[in-house]
């Protein structure tokens, strides 16, 4: 609408004031409006194209769900990616109690997934990775350095 208003003003003023240069100035203004619109659209859609973190409340909630499960020794951290307006994918790092066997860990992960999807219907997938807090921190540090280098 801004471009149309600039075009109308430019053509109208160039005829009314008999100054054809105003039509050219209006064309430049339309170009600037289009460039600004393209910049705003690119900036807004970039996150959805390459993925952006989901709301921090989702990550906090997933951490709370995992840390309150009796089979989890420590919930180390979570990465989330907003895949669309109502779709989130998350990766959770957790250290499980040493006494647990593989079927017990699978049951624990099942409980975490069910609670997470109940609390967050937008959660399309939750990947749970068993690892110690130290391993989580080392991998997170590496990812932080890679993100710093690429941005």
Write the layout of secondary structure elements.
Elements (H helix, E strand, L loop, with lengths): L1 H15 L4 H30 L5 H12 L4 E13 L2 E10 L5 H18 L3 E8 L2 H18 L1
Largest sheet: 3 strands, mixed
The radius of gyration over CA amounts to 26 Å
Task: Supply the number of helical segments.
Answer: 5
Distance between the termini: 34 Å
Classify the secondary structure makeup into a structural class. Answer: alpha+beta
CATH architecture of the largest domain: 2-Layer Sandwich
N to C succession of SSEs: HHHEEHEH
- How are strands sequenced across the largest beta sheet? 1-2-3
- Helicity, in percent? 55-70%
CATH topology of the largest domain: Alpha-Beta Plaits
Strand content: 15-25%
- Please give the number of β-strands: 3
Shape: rod-shaped
Q: What is the CATH C level class of the largest domain, in words?
A: Alpha Beta
Q: Which residues sit in consecutive blocks of at least 5 with pLDDT less than 50?
A: none
Q: Would you tell me the overall average pLDDT?
A: 88
CATH superfamily membership of the largest domain: Cation efflux protein, cytoplasmic domain
The count of domains is 2
Describe the structure.
The protein folds into two domains: 48 residues; 95 residues, Cation efflux protein, cytoplasmic domain (Alpha-Beta Plaits, 2-Layer Sandwich), CATH 3.30.70. It is α+β, with helices and mostly antiparallel strands and 151 residues long. Helix 1 packs antiparallel against helix 2 and helix 3 runs antiparallel to helix 4. The protein is rod-shaped, with a radius of gyration of 26 Å. It is built from five helices and three strands; from the N terminus they run αααββαβα. Helix 4 links the parallel strand 2 and strand 3. The two termini are 34 Å apart. It has a three-stranded mixed β-sheet, with helices on both faces.
């Amino acid at each position: 609408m801004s471009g149309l208003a600039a075009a109308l003003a430019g053509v109208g003023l160039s005829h009314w004031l008999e100054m054809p240069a105003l039509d050219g100035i209006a064309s430049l203004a339309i170009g600037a409006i289009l460039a600004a619109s393209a910049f705003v659209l690119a900036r807004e859609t970039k996150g959805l194209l390459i993925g952006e973190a989901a709301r921090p409340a989702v990550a906090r909630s997933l951490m709370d769900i995992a840390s309150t499960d009796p089979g989890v020794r420590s919930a180390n951290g979570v990465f989330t990616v907003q895949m669309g307006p109502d779709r989130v994918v998350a990766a959770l790092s957790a250290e499980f109690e040493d006494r647990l066997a593989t079927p017990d860990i699978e049951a624990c992960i099942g409980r975490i997934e069910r609670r997470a999807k109940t609390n967050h219907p937008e959660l399309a997938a939750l990947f749970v990775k068993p690892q110690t807090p130290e391993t989580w921190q080392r991998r997170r540090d590496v990812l932080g350095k890679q993100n710093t280098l690429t941005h």
